[in-house]
């Protein structure tokens, strides 16, 4: 026969508890430990931390774990480790962002091991799994600001819009509501911003500044964070609406993440020059040049330094001197040269002759520069001179007799013309002591025809 139990209070229920008819609420520590797969000591620690609720201790019935808190713990995201340092967090965000400028700026401030660790993290975990470890990337503080100061603050170039402000700039559909202005700032300028714009700390203020310790991860021209960073900011938000929007965007962006620091534009692979270039290169070096496809940020940094040195030199520099100034090997210099050829500075071109490099005007800007400097246009070469010049370009070093033999007629006159124009010259490595002199093209030949090196000559046609 069933017996109806009625108690006036929980304490009365516990005091009159009969194990055969009534069980106190919640689970014992042993049962909770079994269900969570942890030790009993861990259960007590979780109760102290507030992660599990005790529904029996205050009534004298011993520790009893709330079933609701246990279910909440079971369905919570598993821990993914300690928070990452700010630089490591920004490395993960830059690597997964797909923004080339942001990625290159962060990579330039990381060591090789740091970049490897970031790549390994994103290969092992997706963005949602690593999200809880990214919160140390900045310290968010909320302020109240006068309306006129807030307008001036938004024009400050030291701010990069984040969170809801970035989402609004990216035209994401924000949920209805009044969201604060949100921005990242360098930690070193936070005090100056507070004083200059009369900001007052306020937990309910309309301005959120996220101070980032050095090194500052954003390129100078960036005013709105990349989409991935904006999504992470929203996913960290305090409201359910913003968190859901951020996580939805993260799921979409995570599908296209390629954890690689390598640059992957469509660039032509370096090939072996069709003719000798005047520089002795070992077979191993040629193999490296022909197979190297690593467009990493170190090659980009070397290329930037190379441009700076050639710019201030205002002339040609030897490869050995450049390698010494850049503190790099000849192999790294070759990669920087290849990178620079694929992505030359606007309006400029890299010219390589023998073992020297020089920055020159880009071929498509030559006429503009000549008109500006009022340089008279050179007289066009005759067909005979062009034939002789082509023979020298593709057969060099070549003798005068060979040129006449190939053309089937005496070429002394056109050779003298080419020598006078400075398009060809006698190669001092050959000839002398009764031997015929040999002719090679000059640096002026490369300038006139707008090519960076002899390797850029079009392939010679072959006739069956």
Description of the structure:
45% of the residues lie in helices and 10% in strands. The protein has 464 residues and is of the alpha+beta class. It is built from 22 helices and eleven strands. The protein has helices at residues 10-15, 29-36, 40-49, 67-75, 86-97, 100-107, 112-124, 127-130, 147-154, 163-169, 190-196, 227-235, 240-254, 283-291, 297-313, 319-326, 330-342, 366-373, 383-395, 400-407, 412-421, 443-449; strands spanning 139-144, 160-161, 181-186, 200-201, 207-212, 317-318, 348-353, 356-361, 398-399, 424-426, 438-441. The strands form three sheets. Strands 2-3-5-1-4 form a five-stranded mixed sheet. The protein has a three-stranded antiparallel sheet with strand order 6-8-7, with helices on both faces. It folds into four domains: 10-75, no CATH class; 86-254, no CATH class; 283-373, Winged helix-like DNA-binding domain superfamily/Winged helix DNA-binding domain (Arc Repressor Mutant, subunit A, Orthogonal Bundle), CATH 1.10.10; 383-456, Arc Repressor Mutant, subunit A (Orthogonal Bundle), CATH 1.10.10.10.
């Amino acid at each position: 026969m069933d017996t109806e139990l009625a108690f006036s209070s929980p304490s009365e229920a516990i005091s009159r508890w009969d194990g055969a008819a009534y069980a106190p609420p919640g689970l014992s520590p042993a049962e909770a430990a079994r269900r969570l797969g942890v030790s009993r000591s861990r259960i007590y620690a979780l109760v102290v931390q507030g992660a599990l609720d005790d529904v029996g201790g205050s009534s004298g019935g011993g520790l009893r774990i709330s079933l609701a808190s246990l279910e909440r713990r079971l369905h919570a995201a598993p821990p993914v480790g300690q928070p990452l340092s700010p630089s490591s967090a920004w490395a993960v965000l830059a690597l997964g962002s797909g923004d080339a400028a942001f990625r290159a700026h962060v990579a330039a401030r990381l060591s090789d091991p740091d970049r490897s660790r970031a790549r390994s993290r994103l290969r092992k975990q997706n963005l949602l799994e690593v999200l809880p470890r990214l919160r140390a990337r900045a310290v968010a503080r909320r302020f109240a600001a006068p309306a006129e100061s807030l307008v001036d603050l938004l024009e400050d170039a030291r701010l990069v819009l984040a969170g809801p402000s970035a989402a609004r700039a990216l035209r994401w559909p924000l949920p209805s509501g009044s969201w604060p202005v949100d921005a990242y700032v360098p930690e070193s300028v936070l005090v100056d911003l507070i004083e200059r714009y009369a900001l007052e700390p306020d937990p309910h203020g309309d301005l959120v500044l996220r101070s980032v310790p050095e090194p500052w991860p954003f390129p100078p021209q960036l005013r709105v964070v990349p989409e991935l960073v904006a999504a992470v900011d929203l996913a960290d938000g305090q409201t359910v609406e913003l968190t859901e929007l951020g996580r939805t965007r993260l799921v979409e962006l995570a599908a296209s993440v390629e954890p690689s620091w390598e640059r992957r534009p469509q660039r032509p692979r370096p090939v072996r020059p069709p003719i000798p270039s005047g520089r002795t290169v070992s077979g191993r070096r040629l193999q490296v040049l022909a197979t190297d496809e690593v467009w990493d940020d170190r090659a980009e940094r070397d290329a930037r330094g190379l441009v700076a040195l050639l710019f201030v030199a205002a002339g040609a520099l030897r490869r050995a001197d450049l390698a010494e100034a850049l503190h790099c090997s000849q192999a790294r210099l070759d990669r920087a040269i290849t990178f620079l050829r694929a992505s030359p500075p606007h309006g400029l071109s890299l010219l390589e002759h023998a073992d020297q490099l020089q920055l020159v005007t880009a071929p498509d800007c030559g006429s503009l520069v000549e008109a500006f400097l009022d340089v008279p246009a050179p007289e066009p070469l005759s067909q005979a001179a062009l034939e002789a010049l082509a023979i020298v370009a593709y057969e060099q070093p070549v003798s005068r007799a060979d040129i006449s033999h190939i053309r089937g007629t005496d070429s002394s006159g056109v050779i003298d013309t080419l020598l006078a124009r400075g398009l060809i010259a006698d190669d001092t490595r050959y000839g002398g002591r009764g031997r015929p002199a040999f002719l090679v093209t000059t640096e002026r030949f490369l300038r006139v025809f707008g090519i960076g090196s002899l390797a850029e000559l079009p392939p010679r046609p072959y006739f069956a």
